[in-house]
Amino acid sequence: MTHASTSPADSAAPAADVTAVESAGRLPLLLLTGSAVAWLILSALLTLVGVLELVQPSFLSGCAFLSYGRVEAMAESAFIYGWVGNAGLAVVLWMLGRLSGEPLRAPNWMVGGASFWNFSLLCGLIGMGSGYATAVPFFQLPAFIVPIMLISYCAMAVPGVLAWIGRRRDLMFASQWYAVAALFLFPWIVAAAYVMLDKVPVQGVVQAVVGGWYAQSLWALWMAPMALAGAYYVVPRVTGRTLPAYDSALLGFWLLLVIGGFTAGRHLINGPVPAWVSSIAIVSTFLLIVHYVIVALNLRPSFGGGGTALKFIALGVFAYLIEGFVDAITSVRGVAVATQFTYFDLAQTELALYGGITLLLFGSIYFAVPRITGRPWPSAGLIRGHWALSVLGLIVSVGCLALAGLKQGADLNHASVAFASIFDDVHVWLVGATVGGMLLLLGNLLLALNLACSVKTMVCEELFSS
Amino acid sequence: MSVPPSDPRFDRAAASDDALLNAHEAAVGPQSNDRAHYPLRPLILLFVTSGFILFAATYLNRYAGQYDPTVFNENAAPSRGSEQAVKIDPVAMGKRLFNSGGACFTCHQPTGMGIPGVYPPLAGSEWAQGSPDRVIRILLAGLGGPITVEGKTFSTAQMPSFGASGFNWSDDKISQVLTYVRQEWGNKAGPITAEQVAAVRAVAGDHKTWTADELLQVK
Amino acid sequence: MKNGLMLFLGLLAAMVIPWSAIVLGSAGELGHQAPYYDETDGVTYPLRQPGTATRGELVYRGLNCATCHTQQVRREEYGADVARGWGERQSVARDYVYRANPELGAFRIGPDLANLGGRKPTAPDTEDLYRLLYEGSGGMPSYAFLFDDRKIVGQRSDEALQLTGRHEAKPGYEIVPTAAARSLAAYLLSLNSTYAYPEAKPVVIKAGEGSK
Question: Which of A61, A140, A334 shows the shortest C-beta gap to C142?
Answer without folding.
Answer: A61
